[in-house]
């Protein structure tokens, strides 16, 4: 029997503490869209996405009303486009980008992800062409997102790709400097990127995924924070962990229910539920706020990394008990610009770049939505990326870098995107040179534990 207090608790999660379905993301394979003629490729992409996703937003809105659970974003992810365009006699990846952007706008989704390449062990011709086209593609589209996997625990780190992505991030920011470098905010590089991630900017439809599937991302940092604040002040950390698991279980159950209903209505398989505590700039919807509820004065205090490790683990444990199909990233995100508490901590100097890097060892992603001075050298950015890729490679986890070199801005300034992407202070970076290391090129070999067959 469902108890009255459980019903009221769920209602309060939604009305008071920002529980929502953060995204429903339709993953669509475009492998059958490949052709030697770029015109045919673009037509195939447009027609296939239109056919599968034409009712995505409408049906999601219907379920939102039926269950009174907000579904914030409706998105599409596709096969890595470097693979789709590579067979063309005259590849034009910017044209493909514009086709994706056009159909995304027509079906009404917020973002389309998959302008991507997988280059952890080296480049193909198509990979190089796609990466070269990223800055222009992001500057000339509105809803397109791009991700490049440049490292893995099995292959090591492609240092040529690390340097190339540092250059690409900087150019993407420069081409959109009139919009505070938003091109770089829609570009991320990964180690161990999962092919079923529903969250942007890293979502793409992996090679092993079905023809079409619905992946759901649920988020509720405000719910977790409220539950922890309701605990007795003398509750020990085991009790704190158990409470997080309990809330994660309930959030996951809610998300999978809605996800499966939507997948059935669309006539496609349900993929995974990604339980990631993805914050927003809204008051009370902050991962940093959870740290304070645990007892830290603010994010960035000594103990923050330990608190994040416990949070990430408890979220995963609660989610895995609720569903047999937990996937994507799942855990806790720490994007600076998208979390009101992280923005405050960075602005006050509580949260430094080095502390953020330490926290990425135990969170679900990595250095995310961090604004740095626009004159930061490419080689320094490459060093940042290499460090983060090493953390993912050695620890056999997903890590990512989404950094915005804010052109014309320096310490004390801020960038502002509004909406979900929020705003961020420009953070200082280490001034020591990384040039001699990052320009050696080649590959950092995979660690010994990669030989685990």
Folded structure, characterized:
This protein is of the alpha/beta class and about 450 residues long. The protein has two domains: about 20-190, Anaerobic Ribonucleotide-triphosphate Reductase Large Chain (Alpha-Beta Barrel), CATH 3.20.70.20; about 220-435, Anaerobic Ribonucleotide-triphosphate Reductase Large Chain, CATH 3.20.70. It has 16 helices and 14 strands. It has helices at about 5-15, 40-55, 55-65, 80-85, 95-105, 125-140, 160-175, 180-185, 220-230, 235-265, 285-295, 305-320, 340-345, 355-360, 380-395, 435-440, and strands spanning about 20-30, 70-80, 110-120, 145-150, 155-160, 185-190, 210-220, 270-275, 330, 365-375, 400-405, 415-420, 420-425, 445. The strands form two sheets. Strands 1, 2, 3, 4, 5, 6, 7, 8, 9, 10, 11 and 14 form a twelve-stranded mixed β-sheet that branches. The chain has a two-stranded antiparallel ribbon with strand order 12-13. Helix 2 runs parallel beside helix 5 and helix 6 packs parallel to helix 7. The longest helix has 30 residues, at about 235-265.
Bin the strand percentage: 15-25%
Number of strands: 14
Helix content: 40-55%
The residue-averaged pLDDT reads 92
Gross morphology? globular
Determine the N-to-C terminus distance: 48 Å
Number of domains: 2
List keywords for this structure.
single chain; 453 residues; alpha/beta; Anaerobic Ribonucleotide-triphosphate Reductase Large Chain; two-stranded antiparallel sheet; 14 strands; globular
What order do the helices and strands come in, and which of them pair?
Layout: H1 4-15, E1 20-28, H2 38-53, H3 56-67, E2 71-78, H4 81-85, H5 93-107, E3 111-118, H6 125-139, E4 144-152, E5 156-158, H7 159-175, H8 182-185, E6 187-191, E7 212-219, H9 221-229, H10 237-266, E8 270-277, H11 287-294, H12 304-322, E9 331-332, H13 340-347, H14 353-359, E10 367-373, H15 378-395, E11 399-406, E12 414-418, E13 422-425, H16 435-438, E14 443-444
Parallel strand pairs: 1-2, 2-3, 3-4, 4-6, 7-8, 8-9, 10-11
Antiparallel strand pairs: 1-7, 4-5, 5-14, 6-11, 12-13
